[in-house]
Write a sequence for this structure.
């Protein structure tokens, strides 16, 4: 009866070790979490970029990093486009004043300027990342036996490598398309030519610094998240984590991981901007500085403290993004888990009556 009910509903049975939900439901939960996170976090970065542009106007071909709470994107200042959202004139006296003036003079939608194009990359990357993590973690916990508590560490690292590797060529294409204003046919010809000259690995240029930051971040984040979530559940004597428990666990684990990996974030941002500006000048065949040389240059110019530049802004951005993403994701999984349990029990109750 249960098998026939599952086939009638068009849903596959929940696989063992999946914690009561299907991979498709995990993807839906992560997708909704990604959209919510971007809606909450993007205004912070839009205001930050507007304040930067007010202090030092972006020249043509200049690159800046745009973060929607899910991933960083390189944006190239468009040639001859004085109407771009980041060039809108304004005189702000600080972050709060910028929020107020942008909403008052440009409308509330202006706080999400530039968001839609980045979601095309960020949402699929997040869906791949979270779904792969859950699937890998469940499989590793079964195989690792006594060391199952370390499964989140390994699953988080592998899932990040996979999602970053898939998205990296697409992000490279997006940056090139934005900077050079080519048609899709011209762009494909340009990419084909680059692959012939430099090999297929040229599509993953800039992946190294991304992995250097994101893999340790993910490993630490998931390990600390699972440990803190379990600890809080024990403290509050609850079997299932509440929204508050997942929110706090996400914020704390995200904060710890962001502080530890901050030097790699500084280097990654510098290399991303350098690579983006080379592409804007159609000089992408030139190899940008290595990670080690960028790190040495930062220390030489700004001292060792230069590797920890932007500590507070990164913490303010990462902590709420991690908290919102993981709590909304866990809420979505709990919703589908309850839904699946009700679907299983309903035909059994009907047959008993």
């Amino acid at each position: 009866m249960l098998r026939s009910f599952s086939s009638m509903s068009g849903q596959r049975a929940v696989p063992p070790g999946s914690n009561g939900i299907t991979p498709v439901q995990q993807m839906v939960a992560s997708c909704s979490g990604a959209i919510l996170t971007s809606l909450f976090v993007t205004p912070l970065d839009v205001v930050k970029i507007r304040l930067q542009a007010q202090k030092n106007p972006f020249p043509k071909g200049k690159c800046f990093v745009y973060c929607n709470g899910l991933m960083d994107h390189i944006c190239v200042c468009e040639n001859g486009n004085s109407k771009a959202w980041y060039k809108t004139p304004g005189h702000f006296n600080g972050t709060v004043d910028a929020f107020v003036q942008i909403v008052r003079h440009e409308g509330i939608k202006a706080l999400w300027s530039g968001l839609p194009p980045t979601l095309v990359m960020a949402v699929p990357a997040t869906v791949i990342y979270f779904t792969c993590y859950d699937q890998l973690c469940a499989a590793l916990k079964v195989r690792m036996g006594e060391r199952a508590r370390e499964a989140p560490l390994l699953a988080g690292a592998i899932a990040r490598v996979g999602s970053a590797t898939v998205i990296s060529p697409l992000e490279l294409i997006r940056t090139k398309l934005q900077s050079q204003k080519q048609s899709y046919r011209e762009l494909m010809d340009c990419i084909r030519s680059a692959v012939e000259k430099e090999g297929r690995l040229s599509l993953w240029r800039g992946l190294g610094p991304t992995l250097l930051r994101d893999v340790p971040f993910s490993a630490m984040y998931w390990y600390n998240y699972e440990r803190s979530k379990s600890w809080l559940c024990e403290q509050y004597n609850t079997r299932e984590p509440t929204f508050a428990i997942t929110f706090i666990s996400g914020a704390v684990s995200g904060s710890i991981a962001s502080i530890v990996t901050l030097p790699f974030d500084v280097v990654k941002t510098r290399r991303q901007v350098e690579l983006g500006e080379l592409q804007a000048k159609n000089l992408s065949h030139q190899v940008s500085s290595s990670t080690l040389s960028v790190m040495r240059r930062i220390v030489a110019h700004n001292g060792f403290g230069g590797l920890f530049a932007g500590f507070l802004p990164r913490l303010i951005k990462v902590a709420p993004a991690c908290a919102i993403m993981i709590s909304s994701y866990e809420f979505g999984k709990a919703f589908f888990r309850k839904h699946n349990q009700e679907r299983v029990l309903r035909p059994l109750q009907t047959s008993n009556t």
